[in-house]
Write a structure and sequence with these properties.
Layout: H1 15-28, E1 33-36, E2 43-46, E3 49-52, H2 60-74, E4 86-92, E5 96-105, E6 108-116, H3 132-136, E7 141-147, H4 151-165, E8 169-174, E9 187-192, H5 200-207, E10 214-217, H6 223-234, E11 238-243, H7 251-256, H8 264-274, E12 275-281, E13 287-291, H9 294-301
Parallel strand pairs: 7-11, 7-12, 8-9, 8-10, 10-11
Antiparallel strand pairs: 1-2, 1-6, 2-3, 4-5, 5-6, 12-13
Length: about 300
């Protein structure tokens, strides 16, 4: 979709047209993120600094129109007036792929759009993922993938490694789908929360009926999702699940914490029966692994959910 240039220092056209203008200019400036918030000017992040663009300050009507434009470009049937936060991804022909977060602040819409690299991350970008080949050859079980902003990139590298190495079927359930993968050896299905499936639990349950060999989930936000995750592992699938933890020792605690109090013994036993390892990526992109050996498995069964030691 091609649009004419904006006269610098003017107001930005509303809706999808203006949004695409700003996205184009962010990319041309080498930016990674676009911020739209009342009462500030549009801002872009370039080389780590958040810089104002030379346009008029935004009004609530402006950001509402831009939010609706994001939804239109992404093909979403959500309404910009919805009180809930919305996460989604979209592509612009000839420009790139983007992740958008729509929220509300002080009664008006706020939008942050992040530029996603077109090529999915690979194992080569994370040298600490070297053991992954052995993991993919090692049969079913559960691996927890922890970390902050690099966590999704590591999960995408896992999907890519399976795709390049394994003659099998992988289902990824993501919120949102960021990097797009093309089938190589693997047969891949990428399902987006809110577009292709309602919840992670629903997607996991469906994967167990779709002849999947492996499942990847970007998040595990609820008890139902965590329960479905363990069931998929118990059914014999290879499962990778993302969790926002900074320390491998805390990953099991984070997963168990999704369940209601009083189920610790049951949950500990279930996790111990399927967990094969934990991989965590830090803020610098360094990856660390923790394998679950017989001693740690016994400790988990006994209710020791921290992996320290």
């Amino acid at each position: 979709m091609r649009t004419p240039p904006i006269v610098r220092g003017s107001a930005v056209p509303p809706g999808a047209r203006g949004l695409l203008h700003l996205v184009h200019q962010m990319v041309e400036a080498g930016g990674t993120d676009l911020h739209l918030k009342v009462p500030g000017r549009p801002m872009i992040r370039v080389n780590g600094a958040l810089l104002p663009m030379p346009f008029d300050r935004l009004t609530p009507a402006d950001t509402a129109a831009f939010a609706q434009g994001v939804l239109e470009v992404a093909g979403s049937d959500e309404l910009a007036t919805s009180p809930r936060d919305v996460r989604l991804a979209f592509s612009v022909d000839g420009v790139g792929r983007f992740r958008a977060q729509l929220t509300r602040q002080r009664g008006s819409c706020e939008i942050v759009i992040h530029r996603i690299a077109l090529a999915p991350p690979t194992m080569a970008e994370f040298p600490g993922l070297a053991p992954l080949g052995e993991v993919l050859d090692g049969g079913p079980g559960l691996f927890l993938v922890g970390g902050g902003r690099h966590r999704r990139a590591v999960i995408a590298a896992v999907v890519g490694a399976f795709n390049a190495r394994c003659w099998g079927r992988l289902v990824s359930i993501e919120d949102p789908v960021e990097w797009l993968h093309r089938d190589e050896r693997g047969s891949l299905s990428q399902r987006e929360i809110g577009t292709d499936v309602s919840t992670f639990a629903e997607g996991l349950s469906a994967a167990m009926r779709q002849d999947a060999d492996a499942v990847v989930v970007s998040d595990v936000p609820t008890a139902d999702d965590a329960d479905a995750l363990l069931r998929a592992s118990e059914e014999g699938l290879l499962v990778f699940a993302g969790l926002p933890v900074a320390d491998p020792d805390d990953a099991v605690l984070a997963l168990a914490g999704r369940f209601a109090p009083g189920r610790e013994r049951e949950v500990s036993a279930r996790i111990a029966s399927v967990l094969r390892g934990v991989v965590v990526v830090d803020h610098a992109g360094e990856v660390s692994w923790k394998r679950i050996d017989a001693g740690r498995r016994a400790a988990l069964r006994a209710g020791q959910l921290s992996l320290v030691g």
